[in-house]
Amino acid sequence: MSTTATTTGPTTTTVPTETVTAADGTTYAYRRFGSSTDGVPLLFLMHFRGNLDNWDPALIDPIAARREVILVDNAGVGASTGIVPSTVAQMATDLLAFTDALGIRRFDLFGFSLGGFVAQDIALLRPWAVRSLVLAGTGPAGAPTMHGWREDIERESRHDVPTAESLLYIFFAHTDTSRARGVDFLRRLGARTEDRDAPTTPAVRDAQYDAVLAWGVPDLTKLERLTAIRQPTLVLQGDDDLMIRTPGSHTLVGLIPDARLHVFPDAAHASIFQYPDEAAAVVEEFLSAATAA
């Protein structure tokens, strides 16, 4: 399985940042590029403390070679205005205001980490709008091991100014092979030299971690929500995620009626950035099959 198509237009590192003001009064920063044959874009939802510049070009560009993609900063994040929500539910509501402002009635969703929490809520709130769902490095509300992160991961994720070393520690397995791929990933993140997004702040960190904690409060009754996600769903995960524990992905696949799981070896939270070519190919294969059904 390989990705052979090339993007001839704008790429992750060259596409201009645009803005749109939604009915909620928030001006959302986003990047939209690629091509679509059916008018249904793939909307990417970012991880904890991430902004538009934190998407890996090696993952996004092969996907954009075949379909239209949209990267977006939620309210209060990066160049978007407004207040950062402290609940996943409000993040989902905000992003629906964003899609409404763009006039998008139908879309596919790719949610990574915290973005995967939000993607689940959007799929439940507006099932008629979400055609298919990709959940990467994420987990279900109320499930075991979901309430906060282990002490070392929380420590490294909550520095006022994130460092390359802390990102490597959180995102990649603590092996030489995984770490080496992590260093490559960090180099790719620096490829965009103009029109970079505004960095996220400690206020973003604090509000988003409140949302993470609220999502994970133990409550097994919340697992029943997953049975209402009827969209074809692809779950991507590393075999030893230190941030959002890997068993949560098995729970997602076990309870979402039309779900499949792909696990990357020797990988932790950012398996999709450790294996970007393979992840892009798996996503494209899944979306092509799901949308053809």
Automatic annotation (TrEMBL):
GO molecular function, one term: hydrolase activity
Keywords from the named record: Hydrolase
Annotated InterPro entries: AB_hydrolase, AB_hydrolase_1, AB_hydrolase_fold
Membrane-traversing stretches: none
Pfam families listed in its UniProt record: Abhydrolase_1 (PF00561)
UniProt keyword Transit peptide present: no
Residue ranges annotated for the AB hydrolase-1 domain, each copy included: 44-274
Protein name (database record): Alpha/beta hydrolase
Originating species: Curtobacterium citreum
